[in-house]
Structures are given as C-alpha cells and as structure tokens.
Amino acid sequence: MRGLGGTILANLPRMIPGAALILLCQLAGEAIAHGTGWPLPGPVLGMMFLLLLLLGNDLLPEPLPTPSVTGAADGILANLSLLFIPAGVGIVGKLDVLAQYGLGLAVALVASTLIGLAVTALVFAGVARLVGRDGEAEDAA
C-alpha cells in the first residue's frame, strides 16, 4: 500500500479523531459567524477555537487526542496541493469575468502585496528598535 492512497489508508484510523475535532471546531466557527453576523470567516474562528483547545489541553479533565490532530493535520498538509484544483477549475470556468476585471485584479493583487511587505518591514523595524533600546538599557545597567 504505497503511494498517496496507501499513505492515507494506513493513517486513517489515527486521523479520524483529529479530523473530527478539526471539523467540529470549523463547524462551531461557522455557526458562530453566521449566527452573530460577524464579518469573520467561520474557518478562522474555528482555527482560533482549535488553538485555544490545544493551548488549554492540560487544563481539560480529559485531554484532547493531540497525536490524532497532528496526524490529521499532516495528512491534510501532505495533500494540500489537491485543494488548489477546485480553485483552478473555478478560475478557468470564469475566464470571461477574469478578462473583464483582470487588470483591476492584477493591480489589487500587486498593490496589496506591496502594502503587506511595507507594513511588515515597518513593524519589524519598529520592534527591532524597541528591542534594541531595551538591550541598550540592560547593557548600561
């Protein structure tokens, strides 16, 4: 049982509880996002819930099966490239829309990337300056 199918089938019993926990967190996030009307995607809320559950795992009376969450996450990451196929098919299916708004999309993509890089550089420089000041104060003392 080698290859993609063999790897998934061999790890399936270990992945099911972790995948169920991941999907339950996503479901909770979706329910809260739709129920409250927050402009935050449900999967983002779900991942925040999963993070909080894993961080507080020691405080729970029955610890979560973290090895199974790791196994499920490894299985998803190992096959992550397959998740891009539907997006690619969707783009090909909407080539008329891409032709109509392609220039605007390209400008928005390049501009948002440059803005993100600039903000990251400014935040890094600010934090480096703050850390540098604290280090100088400790050296002087």
Descriptive key words:
mainly alpha
How would you characterize the overall build of this protein?
- The chain is an all-alpha fold and 141 residues long.
- α1 crosses α3.
- The protein is extended and about 50 Å long.
- It is built from five helices and no strands.
Topology (elements, then pairings):
Elements: H1 3-36, H2 42-55, H3 66-78, H4 85-93, H5 95-140
| Overall geometric form | extended
Kindly estimate the percentage of residues that lie in beta strands according to DSSP: under 5%
**H/E series:** HHHHH
Structural class: mainly alpha
Helix content, binned percent: over 70%
Low-confidence stretches: none
Number of strands: 0
Q: Using the CA coordinates, give the radius of gyration.
A: 22 Å
Distance from N terminus to C terminus (CA atoms, Å) equals 64 Å
Largest sheet: none
Overall mean pLDDT score? 83
Distinct helical segment count: 5
User: How many domain regions?
Assistant: 2
Question: Could you give a short description of this structure?
Answer:
The protein is built from five helices and no strands.
